[in-house]
Input
Amino acid sequence: MTQLTPVLSANWNDSDSFTIAGYKRAGGYAAVTKALAMQPDEVIQLVKDAGLRGRGGAGFPTGMKWGFIPQGDNKEHYLVVNADESEPGTCKDMPLLLANPHVLIEGMIIASYAIRANHAFIYLRGEVVHVFRRVQQAIEDACAAGLLGKNIGGKGFDLELTLHAGAGAYICGEETALLDSLEGFRGQPRLRPPFPAIAGLYAKPTVVNNVESIASVPAIINNGVEWFNSMGTEKSKGFTLYSLSGHVTNPGQFEAPLGITLRELLDLAGGVRKGHQIKFWTPGGSSTPMFTAEHLDIPLDYEGVSAAGSMLGTKALQIFDETTCVLRAALRWTEFYKHESCGKCTPCREGTWWLVQMLKDLEAGKGTEADLEKLLDLCDNIAGRSFCALADGAVAPIISSLKYFRDEYIAHQTQGGCPFDPAASTLFESVAH
Amino acid sequence: MPFTSEHEATMDTIIAKYPKSRSAIMPLLHFAQAVDGYVTPASIEKIAEKLELSTAEVTAVSTFYTQYQSKPVGEYHVGVCINTLCAVMGGDAIYESVTEHLGISNHETTSDGKVSIERIECNAACDYAPVVMVNWEFYDNQTPQSVRDLVDGARTGNPPAPTRGPKTLRTWKQNSAVLAGISDGLANEGVSAGEPSKLGLNIAAKGGK
Output
């Protein structure tokens, strides 16, 4: 049985965990002192050696990303933290920032020092006002404590930190769209190369990291590479936040070593809600192809999930039981991608509209089996044909649900409509019985 | 309302936070909503003037992002999450129930100007599903009845407090000001974390049980 490893969430039971006093009492800001006593390149090397990989979805090695920033180029460098958390099912960064914004700020000071950036940004989704308040207060308190601003810790390092609210656009979680948005434009992805490390914010070398990735840095500085590597699997080191939601007895956040399985996590969450069985689930948000009960023992690390045909993504484990119509789920996610497509690339802009129309017909039992081939053909003309991964994410629920539940799509056609009762899936229905 | 010199000073403070002025366009649009409740043609002109952009450039940005409203919303703007997980867990039933109760549909406001409704996408609180946001504050674990009560309270000026947020619900304009970066001093109110957020932590404390 894998043991849970609360690190980022360790002090969340403290009623003042989000204050600077609460954070310092829990050992906060010790890592800054330690990191500022090192050379910036040593900090980058340490994060590389730890094997920390991006926690926002792609799993790119964080230290390597930092190492890509050209040094001695006489240009401004920027650190931008992606706090736009919007991938359906993903709910880890917002509670983290609500409960402990200082751990992100501490990580940002260390990361900025390492990449030699003097201005850093947090791009926070705009639909979470209380999280905005907490982060803004934390920045003000860190400034007052001399942890941000000029000559931090007397080491001659300056850092300005700006909190920026988004305004409701999923696409801004894509790093280049985020940068365009932060520059004051419509959030639309850029063609790469050049990558942000060469030409990012204001065309200057820029690191874009997820909240959880940066928040994991202080613990690595404090406890060392060996400690971090004592958790996780061969290529997926360390601890991470897994978010269980949906038809489970006790949904919530679980900080565990990478490689834990859903069977283990479900066991800790009290299992699927009483009297029901798991039908399908996402390993890391709606853009990661869905799994079924067959996949409960897959190690939830970057390699394990990918070998089984999906992606670890944001580790957003959305659990759906047998009362849920998979076509309804796929249609609703597709409506989301249609709504959030930024409109830059034709296959995504037009294709997601067609997908919604086809799925609506199929849900209403107005399709034929041949339409399923047309649907897959349409998916094939959308995925991989756009600037960014939104298009790939858009087809994931459709292709994967057809792979595992083709019969259910056909049942809608033979029965002339949806065979499921949506009321049976709701929580209050189960309360009423 | 026309922009006062005080408003202009606030806008200048916002612009000064960025290396390049154009980056201030989003907080300035949030600020415009703090002043007028939505993005008015006059505020588009003012922002364009401040940032030395055309009104078309500012409009292009304001119409891209769904949080910027092109017409007035209610004092309490209610967002019902209808993305897959919340929808399945009860968000669809909540939406149906509250719109029928109020007699309005998506993007409409009650005639008293108090409550507006929007179908919203995933708001990063899935372990608290079904989720409703009011003025972008969290209302966790909702039911059709709790949301009907919520909007009734809002219409009589007495909305319940957010689940994870300040002690009292602030208005749409007040919360728009926060998003523009104008502190309301309420960061210390409310819980550190809700119970689901601490579930793994508390299981670990009990030795994994």
